[in-house]
Amino acid sequence: MFGWEPGIGDPTIYGWLTVAAYALGALLSWRAAQQGAARERRFWLVLAAIMAFLCINKQLDLQTLLTDIARHFAKRDGWYDQRARVQLAFIFALGAATALITLSLLVWMRRSRWPVWGASVGLALLLFFVSLGPFAMAAAMRISVES
Q1: Among residues 94, 18, 1, which one has the least CA distance to residue 56?
Q2: Do 83 and 47 lie in a common domain?
């Protein structure tokens, strides 16, 4: 039904270095959650969960599964030919959610110590980078269709 299969999605050295970086970020965030104020503990736990998810996703390529599921429903429900509109709406929603999460995080953590601020800025940059993926994919698909 779907083209996605569980397995190692990026077996290159860069893929494994990225996995290691996400895993290290999750571990360090988890350790930071063991200290500090309750508000900061929640931040570090959420950050640890995000980093752990990104670590797992890097190799399982879960966004491909999501794409395959969406493609299945688009074909089944008859809107596959209009998928560009849905993709564009998804991309803008993802960008808006990223911006909203970043702003909320910065407001929520405004009285925190500098390590939390540094991690917050790093998370904002990471979310921005991760959210660029769908933009690049959509642009590449448009270019290949127009060629």
Answers
A1: 18
A2: no
